[in-house]
């Protein structure tokens, strides 16, 4: 019995979705194992169990494949962070300091969890304009999400929006630096991720909730 026309498009869409996931996962693995040099169309095709020609038809070339993998990765990363620091979730936390700590922890934990892939894209962005633009887009989106999630707290600054913007920049810059440069670039004192997270939470809570003159 032949498949009904009504069901065929759904099956094709599901097959396409699975193929996209296979390609993305293959790309992630290659980038983590060997960096951008390991990401070739042939290597992705072999890892994903697909024909080389189908990848060229879908993405055009290696750069198209790379940007598609980056986009999928950044979208998934941002979705994970957004879920943890959604305004609805943070507004039920009565203590503003707890809400700030949760938002900072969401960013720090995600960067730690995806450290290997983030290192590839952050470093590549210093010399590849399209990668930098995508990274800038998603980090700016993260900034807006952070500000929206904490808009309800009593920020102790004349310009709360500017203060929230700086707080996000501080967290992002610190964890991105850790991802790209490691633990001991600027000091030989150990600072594992758990301590870095805690210190960042304390610093941002103090900055946002304390009065500007420190009282």
Description:
It is built from 10 helices and no strands. The chain is mainly α and about 220 residues long.
Summarize the structure.
The protein is 74% helix and 0% strand.
Q: Which descriptor suits the 3D outline?
A: elongated
State the order of secondary-structure elements, H for helix, E for strand: HHHHHHHHHH
Cα-atom Rg, whole angstroms?
Answer: 21 Å
* Quaternary class: single chain
Mean pLDDT: 91
- How many DSSP helices? 10
β-strand number:
0
- How many strands, which pairing sense, and closed or not: the largest β-sheet? none
- Work out the helicity level: over 70%
Beta percentage is under 5%
Low-confidence stretches: none
**What distance lies between the first and last C-alpha atoms, to the nearest angstrom?**
78 Å
Q: Give the helix/strand class.
A: mainly alpha
Give the topology, please:
Layout: H1 8-34, H2 41-48, H3 52-59, H4 62-84, H5 87-91, H6 96-113, H7 115-124, H8 129-149, H9 160-181, H10 193-209
Structure keywords:
10 helices, 215 residues, mainly alpha, 74% helix
């Amino acid at each position: 019995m032949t498949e009904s026309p009504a069901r065929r498009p759904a099956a094709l869409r599901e097959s396409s979705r699975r193929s996209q996931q296979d390609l993305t996962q293959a790309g992630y693995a290659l980038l983590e194992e060997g960096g951008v040099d390991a990401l070739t169309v042939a290597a992705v095709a072999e890892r994903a169990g697909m024909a080389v020609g189908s990848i060229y038809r879908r993405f055009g070339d290696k750069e198209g494949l790379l940007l598609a993998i980056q986009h999928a990765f950044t979208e998934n990363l941002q979705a994970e962070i957004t879920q943890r620091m959604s305004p609805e979730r943070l507004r039920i936390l009565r203590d503003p300091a707890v809400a700030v700590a949760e938002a900072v922890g969401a960013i720090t934990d995600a960067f730690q969890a995806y450290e290997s892939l983030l290192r590839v894209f952050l470093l590549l962005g210093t010399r590849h304009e399209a990668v930098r633009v995508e990274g800038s887009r998603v980090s700016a989106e993260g900034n807006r999400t952070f500000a929206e999630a904490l808009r309800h707290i009593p920020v102790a600054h004349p310009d709360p929006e500017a203060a929230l913007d700086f707080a996000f920049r501080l967290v992002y810059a610190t964890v991105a630096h850790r991802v790209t440069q490691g633990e001991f670039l600027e000091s030989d004192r150990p600072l594992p991720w758990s301590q870095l997270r805690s210190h960042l939470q304390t610093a941002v809570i103090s900055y946002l909730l304390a009065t500007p003159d420190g009282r």
